[in-house]
């Protein structure tokens, strides 16, 4: 798993750190090293991290106690030299659950810490019709089942990530506004915790596009690309932005709201009430109304988006000129909005999700041409549109990745019998 | 100096690090700690960084040898306990030079590592009339004088930062395109080094808006705000973006090109050849042509921008309705473009430089109102337009800050007599 941005250093940075947080940082440093390198000896780790060998041994005792690493036996390196006892990351006893709640489905994706998939499920669902209370009950029910499945596989759940299509206050775990779910000011983490009831795993919430971007970055078509943008393609269009190998969240967690960039002051009115938002040019409703106007959506939730996209794909395959022109026009606007993203972020890739991915073959050529015409740095700023291969699973996968990162950043949150060494603060 | 993003950790992150780079990372860790904390004992540093005490003593010997820290005598903490020998950052022997080359001036700003200002000068100049060769000669002459001044103050120059209004390939130190200087594909670092001749300090180049943003972040009106955007306000409009406490550079160093976001498909033609760029709405030429059309600029470089802005300020003071309407209109477009930045980055502040700062009192109210109307997260994404107080010095100050960061990140580049401990690799 590529992660360019380094882990928080042991005690570096602006703020003074206490001994407990220093120990957490050092545990994370060791875990990240094991994740990158595979098996290592304790002295390899000491050499690579600059930590004292006694400190590494002490940290390792805690990680062994928490079931996060395991001894992998004796290794012999080269013809001479002492054999060494190696350790490796062991995630098999720790489970993470990613979930996504969207307009017409709930998805779950559970793995162990090493990335082995233990649960993957998608359940149809009508969020708008159900309202927030019944939606939360349904999400709680599906999550509880998945947690039971994780537990049955021997992986104790360490956390639940939830992806939501809307503005999320990440610090509070609350949804500020999710127009397509009809949610406003919903303390989702708290409410879901209450639904699940047993408090076995903390809940973290983020925007679906942010989490899909994280999934693309950790294991998708742009895996390891430190500067990239992910675009959801639904009736609404959201963005998740990776900058220098980390998710850009902004001051309040409201970054990446690409759908409402004003790009045409004489354009049509958006569902948000403003005029000329990018979404009115490239969202699914815009495409449907020009490609297949007899199917055009009114206001409110969009029924059967997959069916609409399938019809458009059929129109393309049949060479229907109206459909072809409509798709090309969306492609050009995709390139125009993409040029704003490239002028501002200078990413290496813009990954297209949702319906964009399904029509990528016909959308990308006009989008790429328009992008190249409009980007001010010209060909020097090399950026390609790429179609996502993760499909509907992207956001729930990303939600699981978020929990994995959380576990690595604070391994002390993983339950274990108290071990003797925890009285030795700060790893010495 | 606030820096939220932590220093690179000792050996953490994805890539395996060699002993030399591990030692550099540990030296930087110690220097950053001293910069944040002021004076400390070696054992404080060991506690805070997790490094072994012997390692800290060894690193400290090197930093003392390079003149980057100094012993500050004995400190007594509390009523009991042993007295301790403290050390502190000592930047007085190390100089940094920031320079800016712009359309009509060259500026220099030289400090020691501790931030004491040793040189500050601005020299009038006609970049377009002179062409690249003579411009470089002039920049070289001014920089050489400033280096001599630094040296005369006892500060050995550690590096020269150059701010350029254009697209910069930071890794190569080359200017890809600077339309207002008439430069294209100019290997500036190499050429300036040759002008200066004696190789006494390496040259680093970056975009003027990026460096002004860095100056605002380290010591301006938005100092320490981890998520902020800086806008230059000239005939061209550039942006520098700070994300999570660090300058956003993008994959090729071409980020922050706000001036050419397409915001009006039926708008007027931009100097870049495209249509409806934000610059055609908020750049100085746009304002002059609607506020004082008899002064409107043609194509090519804009003469006397400061005079034009002064005339507009007079028109405002006199209550000239045409001028007032023109400024309000620019304010509204500033808010519209600002809403794109807030939707994407969710910054806490947008700092207005250049002519925007001079007319801030009349520009900010309509800009702020339009911003709040258009931002999709509404009042939850709190972002204020603020007027820069750094004036023309912002970019050269930021160029100096860039060199300071470089020195902290790699203290081994600072010359010193070889010291015994350098054979002990990796700090032990």
UniProtKB/TrEMBL annotation, chains A, B:
GO molecular function (one): DNA binding
InterPro entries noted in UniProt: ATPase_NBD (IPR043129), ROK (IPR000600), Tscrpt_reg_IclR_N (IPR005471), WH-like_DNA-bd_sf (IPR036388), WH_DNA-bd_sf (IPR036390)
Similarity field: Belongs to the ROK (NagC/XylR) family.
Protein name: ROK family transcriptional regulator
One GO biological process term: regulation of DNA-templated transcription
Matching Pfam families: HTH_IclR, ROK
Stretches assigned to the HTH iclR-type domain: 29-71
